[in-house]
Design a protein that fits this description.
Oligomer: single chain
Strand content: 5-15%
Number of helices: 13
Helix content: 25-40%
Shape: globular
Number of strands: 12
Distance between the termini: 17 Å
Largest sheet: 7 strands, mixed
Radius of gyration: 20 Å
Strand order of the largest sheet: 1-9-8-5-4-2-3
Bound molecules: pyridoxal-5'-phosphate
Length: 364
Amino acid sequence: MMQVPFLDLGAAYRALQPEIETALLQAARSGVYIGGGALQDFEQAFAAYSGSLHCVGTGNGLDALRLALMALDVGPGDEVIVPSNTFIATWLAVTQCGATLVPVEPDPSSHLITVDAIAAAITPRTRVILPVHLYGQPVDIDAITTLAREHGIRTIADAAQAHGARFDGQPIGGAFDLCTWSFYPSKNLGALGDGGAVTTNDPALAERVRLLGNYGSREKYRFEQAGINSRLDPLQAAILSVKLPWLDAWNARRQSIAARYQAALADSDWQLPQVSPRVSPVWHLFVVRHPQRERMQQALRERGINTLIHYPIPPHLQEAYQGQWPTEAFPVARQLASDILSLPIGPQLSDAHLNFVIDTLQTL
Ligand SMILES: *Cc1c(COP(=O)(O)O)cnc(C)c1O
């Protein structure tokens, strides 16, 4: 029986195997294992690619979020507005800074938080609006930056799923005060291990992120701030530099797969994600909704098609946040968790597999 993987990371590696292995050997032989030219080269290339002036590599995407919040001095007593439906890292970064989470519900058709929901959640203690470009679709950057400016609130975007996405035709890395990225292996731009970055147009904020991620130190053995240790390895940076020139082509393949799903499922019981005409999503995930989600996922599995759920339990119902919100809180996030399904998508998904998935979906 044909087996369609949800995502084939092995195939992604093999696509660039000689180039990646050359870069790995070079990095291993360089004698420089923290910082150095390979890291600088990637940071410069990714800043340019993401439409920002500065990029600072971090150990992972969670630390990128924590460092962005730390760079804005977010701490106890500060409120940070986040989506009620996101990967838990967005929430953890806020609580790890000692700040207060203010989750807002998404629009269930786009899965994204809207400027109206954000505006309704602003209080005198709001310090930061932290939206997520979830599944690779940018939020309404224009409306959110305007709202934040009016209230004197800072903005951080969690772009862990949105490398290469555009808003009004522009890359998104410099749009908010700070933008955070993850290079976790399965992301649109993934390392062979953990990695992350913060991008910004503000040189002072970039400098603060770099300082805070390097023990609060600029100069060896002098510590100006109580920082953390979270840097992007030059080894991972070298791999990411090999992959970056391919990212637009990989995202284009994701976009053509998404277009196939959209056409095939247009008049069906599947509810498709609504996309704003102002954005070009990069479809980190293609998330559809179905009233009989469990039955559909099972039927697809029996036919060899692997799907996933992003995410099956909203953050406020996780054990980690037990007792902090009533179970009935955030009904939109709960509803989405119960009816969403992520279909196979990725640059290496073959036409044969895609056709099989589409044929199967149409006969279920
Ligand atoms: C992956 C992800 C993160 C965290 O990235 P890590 O590199 O795994 O720490 C944060 N936010 C979102 C939305 C993510 O998808």
